Amino acid sequence: MRITGRVCFLVLAILLVSVSAKGEEQEENPYVFDDRHFTTGLQTQHGRLRILQNFAERSKLLLGIGNYRVAVLEAQPHTFIVPNHQDVNTLLYVAQGEGAVSVVSEDNRESFNIREGDIFWIAAGTPTYLINRHNNQNLVIAELLQPVSVPGRVEAFFGAGGENPESFYKAFSDEILDAAFNARRDRWQSLFRKQRQGAILKASEEQIRAMSREEGGIWPFGGQTKASVINILEQRPSQSNQYGKLYEVDSSQHRQLQDHDVSISLANITQGAMTTLYYNSEATQIVIVEDGEGYFEMACPHLSQQQGQGQGQQQPRPSYQKVSSPLKQGTVVVVPAGHPYVAVASNNQNLVLLSFEINSKNNRRYPLAGKRNIINQLEREAKELAFRASARNVDEVFGSQNDEGFVKGPRQQQQQGGRADA
Ligand SMILES: *[C@@H]1O[C@H](CO)[C@@H](O)[C@H](O)[C@H]1NC(C)=O
Ligand SMILES: [Cu+2]
């Protein structure tokens, strides 16, 4: 007994050591993802679904969002995505193009058109298919996936299909299918041998027209539809000035977002401008660059601890590491709750950032600079004690920026002769 206990302890200790050694090998910046971090889930010559690396596998620091995945679907003009269901709840955002989605149940089928800016929800297990209705534009959909079966894993189930996409019916025994279909074996066997083109297929113009919802149809305002579509670009921006606009979908507008404690926002940062410094109180923000270029900076206490190991006691605790990376179309950045953050647009193009926000129900964005920043709210004594400076000094610094939400960016300020740090 005793020996076994010690052996167990030893094995455990070795395991712990190897886990932490592995931790130290992790990339310096686990918060940024690019093309290399996507794998292809589905692919045919007419489109593909790319899935971002599992957050929990990337870094222990991302364990908090370990049961979410991000995916991007791209379908060429006039294509059809074969009906399937998935073991994930999915929040979808149409980044580009025009399509139609159909969801099926045992006694009805609902179809609705989608276009850029639309967000909608597909509950796990819902039989779904979609089309790209446009004749020359790709349909691009960004997805936040929440697995309901195996944590962090996403599987699609195709019934309609054949060899490729492989139909799950074929996993069953012949005698089961004879009985289940009550059809002749040669009939059902030959049916499941025909499809070899994959899950994303070219469709004819007539087929697309027949599967499209007529414009101006009653959906989503009438009927007993389970889904609902909101266009985020039609919302009144919650923040707006010459330096940028922030569009949000308030979860009270969308029941499924509320139920699942997630939300979406879209920031359109004017060229040469930036967001104000801020942090999210509770939400972890997964930012996807939809358009433009720029960079971000974030303050992270976790990475600072990793770096500070073995350097003696010089460093104050906590201490913060600057995390920074260029942003371009397709870059994904994770901004954990509490972490101060800023995103900056390049000088030649607006930077458009889509964000999925997890744990968003009671989230607040606390501004750390600009009008209405939280330091301004401290009383004189608190300012003086905290900074060990006069309150006037503090006010000079925290009271000078009169914009909020979005502000002039660093380079633009230099060009215009503004004082940087003279
Ligand atoms: C972002 O703003 C620019 C300038 O107002 C506009 O042309 C562009 O369409 C906007 N993009 C999105 C996705 O809203
Ligand atoms: Cu951190």
From TrEMBL:
<feature type="region of interest" description="Disordered">
    <location>
        <begin position="398"/>
        <end position="422"/>
    </location>
</feature>
<feature type="region of interest" description="Disordered">
    <location>
        <begin position="303"/>
        <end position="323"/>
    </location>
</feature>
<feature type="compositionally biased region" description="Low complexity">
    <location>
        <begin position="411"/>
        <end position="422"/>
    </location>
</feature>
<dbReference type="InterPro" id="IPR050253">
    <property type="entry name" value="Seed_Storage-Functional"/>
</dbReference>
<dbReference type="InterPro" id="IPR011051">
    <property type="entry name" value="RmlC_Cupin_sf"/>
</dbReference>
<dbReference type="Pfam" id="PF00190">
    <property type="entry name" value="Cupin_1"/>
</dbReference>
<feature type="domain" description="Cupin type-1">
    <location>
        <begin position="230"/>
        <end position="395"/>
    </location>
</feature>
<dbReference type="InterPro" id="IPR014710">
    <property type="entry name" value="RmlC-like_jellyroll"/>
</dbReference>
<feature type="compositionally biased region" description="Low complexity">
    <location>
        <begin position="305"/>
        <end position="315"/>
    </location>
</feature>
<feature type="domain" description="Cupin type-1">
    <location>
        <begin position="36"/>
        <end position="189"/>
    </location>
</feature>
<protein>
    <recommendedName>
        <fullName>Cupin type-1 domain-containing protein</fullName>
    </recommendedName>
</protein>
<dbReference type="InterPro" id="IPR006045">
    <property type="entry name" value="Cupin_1"/>
</dbReference>
<keyword id="KW-0732">Signal</keyword>
<feature type="signal peptide">
    <location>
        <begin position="1"/>
        <end position="23"/>
    </location>
</feature>
